[in-house]
Amino acid sequence: MSTLGAAVAFTGTPERTALREAATAFTRRSVAPHLQEWEDAGALPRELHATTAQAGLLGVGFAEEVGGDGGDLLDSLTVTEGIFDGGGSGGLVASLFTHGIALPHIAAAGDADQVDRFVRPTLAGRTIGSLAITEPDGGSDVASIRTTARRDGDHYVVDGAKTYITSGTRADFVTTAVRTGGAYEPGRGHGGVSLLVVEAGTPGFTVDRRLTKMGWHCSDTAQLSFDGCRVPAANLVGEEGSGFVQIAQQFVVERIGLAVQGYAAAARALDLAAAWCHERETFGKPLAARQVVRHKLVEMRRQVEVARTYTHAVAARHVAGEQVVAEACLAKETAVRTAESVCHEAVQLFGGAGYMHGSEVERHYRDVRLLGIGGGANEVLADLSARLLGYA
Questions:
Q1: Which listed residue, of 10, 12, 31, 290, carries a Cα 20 to 30 Å from 116's Cα?
Q2: Taking 50 as the threshold, does the pLDDT of residue 225 lie above it?
């Protein structure tokens, strides 16, 4: 049994154990044999979304009332673990489940028309959604976005640019953070920020270019521009000016999700390294026969267990309704450090084989580097935690 498999079987319910096993089997069957091909292509095939939906995995964590498969954050966490256990990757999870950050605001706002137009078809795998917040002039500082949306009758006229947008080149719609309260002014704060769904094909909305990255190769990433783009006012998510609060409410889930990616990638890298160390012989003995190697594997396991256990605890507290903003930051930081350390050691243990492009540990090594940047950079989240914990 894998590192994660043992952990979930011990701490999870029988239903979640079965869910993880289903996600693992699906990944081994429908993903792993093709993943390098998709990495080289720079994107996932659209039909994979429908296939995943048919397997009952795409809508986990979304209520059945909006077209999801039901369950909560702990269930979606379990799916992510199973995908990594089956040979998936961070780029795969980011691209295949981009709706995890594109749809929650729409589903929570409760507009029946928006749910029917955007949420249901995406959870069925027929459409792809994306979330656009980051801009060329700023990343984690959501309050300083400069993309504007000026009301003009039954439409908003959108002008501005977004960058580093996951699934942006394939998206059928983009949940976009805009400033409806006038142009950005330094020191003004988060007032006037709204969320607006911009559909592909809208005149004035352009995918400027596909961005090439260090990792997450199978996850397409785009730079977007809006030039006099007229968007129906019916596409406003929630009330005008409520965008910052909506975004902030989803940050905890996003950061826990990235923490899961971190320890899950580390656990997979550890399993691969442990198997390699028992198979690979040097100087007449398996690598695992050497004390320095065994101790390294034990230390890798310790880090995985700590990150996994803490992230599970924070996720459970969030599902129970507790405020865990600081704890989610700490979980993400713990998992990021674990992922970077364990994947580094896995490549070291594989030696030249681990340095080869296309090897699974090499992919994880590249992919996990993004985790300390996306969803709030390590430094930004450390400063936020300091304020929340009363250290500032």
A1: 31
A2: yes
